[in-house]
Amino acid sequence: MLTVSHLTKFYGKTAACRDISFALDPGSVTVLLGPNGAGKSTLMKSVIGFLRYDGAIQVAGLRNKSVEARRIMGYIPEFPSLYPNLTVSEHMEFIARAYRLTDYSGRIDELLRRFELDDKRRKFGDELSKGMQQKLNLCLGLLPQPQLLLMDEPMIGLDPHAIRQLKEIIEEMRAEGRTLLVSTHIIDSVDMLWDRALILQAGEIRANMTRTQLEESGSTLEDLFFEVTEGQGKEAPAESGAAE
Ligand code: ADP
Which residue among 9, 33, 42 has the greatest number of ligand 1 atoms within 8 angstroms of its CB, and so is best to mutate? Predict the structure, then answer.
């Protein structure tokens, strides 16, 4: 569903991503782990087509920057950028129209209810608390139900109810055959959810493993993380992950 081949991205002289290659299966959840500054956001922004980079990225066999690919992928940024003079309802309506969705009002109702924003529909973007802004940011990204959804640190700033809702929605999307790439630097926040883990450090992939491979190795995600990022314990098992 997503194939990244030899992605390299420099900001000036800083290599934020170095020769990254991996592929994601349809209907899977991949967690992208890495310390701050590892290159997670840069990788996501490259996939969604916001940045220039070297290498090739394909979504369902389509070039990621093509109109067709953009139609089937979505991105939930780490930091919400809401319109101060649009209400919660107007934000949702705006996204629905931008994506030319049909029959969307039930889905809007459901998302606002699940994230406890239904009584905030008339509030303006700049009247929302930080956590509410974060929840609206999620609702906006989830509304179009893309085939490939990238979420950058989606759990940050959420209350326990919203975290549970988001985890359930991630599982529902996987069951519908959608593909998710979820970045985080908090390992515990995703431990139940993932099918594949990518661990990034200093712009390079240090590990690329399925849950089954990790379970067979007798390790935990946390152990693997520290093994590959701090060199503790045995050498990390890693797939080549090279995209074909
Ligand atoms: P992460 O999301 O894992 O925290 P980022 O992708 O944000 O990592 O950053 C990777 C590296 O690229 C860091 O060294 C960061 O300082 C640098 N970087 C990120 N964005 C920019 C930018 N717009 N300009 C210059 N350097 C950047």
Answer: 42
